């Protein structure tokens, strides 16, 4: 478990699928403070309040404001440019999509994902 200033490190999770949100909560809640948002719009609103997560896990495909738009806005903002991002997606050719994005993605995983692999990726990114 990672501790920051006497508190658990925080992860912003952005996904529109309730089953994925429940799974991620089950896997990660014991070790991290989780902030759950069901859309990119909700995530941006939360971040604009001055919140600063240690890591962001985002779905790629969401209605209205998808993961790509969310991450592009964060990386352009400057303030969140160095916040690690893990992209989750059930999209075909995810590796190719990530490679063609005009901004850096720290890690990505295809759904369904291996929980142990996800936890390992998180630990590597926010040690």
Low-confidence stretches: none
Determine Rg (CA atoms, Å). Answer: 13 Å
Main beta sheet, described? 5 strands, parallel
Number of domains: 1
> Beta-strand percentage?
15-25%
> What level of helicity do the residues show?
25-40%
Q: Indicate the structural class.
A: alpha/beta
What is the topology, as strand order, of the major beta sheet? 4-3-5-6-7
Q: What pattern of helices and strands is seen along the backbone? A: EEEHEHEHEHEH
Q: Distance between the terminal alpha carbons, to the nearest Å?
A: 10 Å
CATH class: Alpha Beta
| CATH architecture descriptor name | 3-Layer(aba) Sandwich
Mean pLDDT: 91
- Could you tell me the CATH topology label: Rossmann fold
By DSSP (H or I, 4+ residues per run), the number of helices equals 5
Domain Response regulatory: 10-126
Keywords: Phosphoprotein
Protein name: Response regulator
InterPro entries: Bact_response_regulator, CheY-like_superfamily, Sig_transdc_resp-reg_receiver
